């Protein structure tokens, strides 16, 4: 009995020691894991914007007279040279030198506008020819493998933008020509007013095809020379304007790809940055902070059938792509953390520029700190230039207990 008692006592002590060792042994830290993937990585500037007409035309009275009531309403479609309003001369006024010179100056100004529009057309055609030449040259280089095939899509969009610029210049010349015709007709009415030949009704015609945006003078009234009557515009020539912070606008270069979202219709529209205005302005934010902002003009590239319901001054959201990398190695941005200064300097495998960031990689159930070279980050993902390979598992939001060599296990969802 005595030997058996000692045996049971020794077994109990051994079991107690084992339980104590098990209780004091470090437990694997539960962590959240995410795979290292490869795919398209983009950084964007997100901002609200609004649509506006590329060209807006205010039709004014080419001469003083009595305006008949305008029957057109907002949204009515008018063709080029269609009648918009009718003017009847008032009681014949004395034809003085001042009135005659005012109308003659209007004719001269309209002639200059026609000449300027012709110069703009020539400049736009030269730009279009240059873009087409660049596209043909890049197509040959792409076939020989000197440039990436993705460059051809940018060249195609540049050709489309240049063609639209030519169309806009042609529309401007047509408008200037109509203004010249109306100014000449007004000059004829003024010259004939004293002889009583000006009693015929004068018709104000549309300078371009489009829609009536606003009727500024609907009722019958006596109007003076230059009184605004209607506002016209072609809603098929829309552009988007976004007000960016000046620090962000430096990255929004002309030609940058733009994604237009939350515009009221299905899907996402494609756009392209046309220009960044050279002058900024001060705007007070909702929090009362003064901000320096600048307007960025964006062309719509998607087919018009997708956005034909859009109108002038509609609110949209734009995402301007500032960086795009194909086949980029990516991890969740929450997996990347900065390293203390000089912490990775001792790692021979890490390049000098990669010493500022690192991730924890799971290797055989243990956490391994790996310095990485960070190429960029957006709201959800980080682009890793070097240091990781697709297929590895990294720790997302690493807790304070995770260190080099610590055993870890995936948290059960």
The average pLDDT value, as a whole number, equals 83
Strand content: 35-45%
Number of strands: 22
CATH class membership of the largest domain: Mainly Alpha
Q: What is the helix tally?
A: 5
CATH topology of the largest domain: Helix Hairpins
User: What are the secondary-structure elements, in order, as H or E?
Assistant: HEEEEEEHHEEEEEHEEEEHEEEEEEE
Shape: elongated
CATH architectural arrangement of the largest domain: Orthogonal Bundle
- Biggest sheet strand line-up: 2-11-15-13-12-16
Instruction: Report the end-to-end length measured between terminal Cα atoms.
Output: 54 Å
Q: Which stretches are poorly predicted, pLDDT < 50 over at least 5 residues? A: 194-198, 344-352
- How many structural domains can be distinguished in the coordinates? 4
Helix and strand content put the structural class at alpha+beta
* Main sheet properties: 6 strands, antiparallel, barrel
Provide the helix percentage: 25-40%
Rg from Cα: 35 Å
């Amino acid at each position: 009995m005595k030997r058996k008692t000692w045996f049971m006592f020794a077994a109990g002590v051994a079991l107690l020691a084992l339980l104590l060792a098990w209780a004091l042994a470090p437990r694997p830290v539960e962590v959240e894991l995410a795979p290292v993937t490869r795919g398209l990585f983009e950084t964007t500037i997100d901002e609200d914007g609004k649509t506006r007409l590329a060209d807006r035309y205010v039709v004014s009275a080419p001469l003083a007279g009595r305006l008949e009531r305008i029957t057109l309403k907002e949204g009515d479609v008018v063709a080029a040279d269609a009648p918009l309003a009718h003017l009847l001369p008032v009681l014949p006024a004395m034809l003085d030198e001042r009135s005659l010179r005012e109308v003659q100056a209007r004719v001269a100004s309209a002639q200059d506008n026609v000449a300027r529009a012709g110069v703009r057309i020539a400049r736009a055609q030269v730009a279009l020819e240059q873009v087409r030449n660049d596209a043909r040259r890049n197509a040959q280089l792409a076939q020989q493998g000197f440039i990436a095939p993705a460059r051809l899509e940018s060249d195609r969009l540049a050709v489309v933008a240049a063609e639209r610029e030519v169309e806009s210049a042609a529309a401007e010349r047509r408008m200037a020509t109509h203004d010249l015709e109306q100014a000449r007709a007004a000059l004829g009415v003024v010259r004939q007013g004293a002889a009583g030949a000006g009693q015929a009704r004068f018709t104000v015609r549309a300078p371009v095809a489009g829609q009536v945006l606003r009727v500024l003078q609907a009722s019958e009234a006596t109007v003076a020379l230059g009184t605004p009557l209607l506002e016209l515009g072609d809603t098929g020539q829309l552009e988007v304007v976004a007000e960016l912070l000046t620090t962000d606008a430096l990255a929004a270069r002309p030609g940058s790809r733009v994604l237009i979202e939350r515009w009221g219709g299905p899907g996402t529209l494609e756009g392209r940055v046309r220009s960044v205005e050279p002058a900024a302005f001060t705007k007070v934010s909702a929090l009362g902070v003064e901000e320096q902002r600048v307007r960025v003009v964006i062309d719509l590239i998607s087919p018009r059938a997708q956005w034909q319901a859009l109108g002038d001054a509609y609110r949209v959201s734009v995402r301007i792509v500032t960086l795009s990398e194909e086949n980029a190695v990516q991890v969740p941005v929450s997996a990347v953390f900065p390293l203390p200064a000089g912490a990775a300097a001792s790692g021979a495998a890490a390049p000098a520029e990669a010493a500022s960031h690192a991730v924890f990689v799971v290797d055989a159930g243990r956490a391994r700190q790996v310095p990485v070279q960070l190429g960029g980050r957006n709201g959800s993902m980080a682009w890793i230039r070097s240091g990781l390979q697709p297929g590895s598992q990294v720790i997302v939001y690493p807790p304070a207990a995770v260190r080099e060599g610590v055993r870890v296990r995936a948290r059960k969802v």
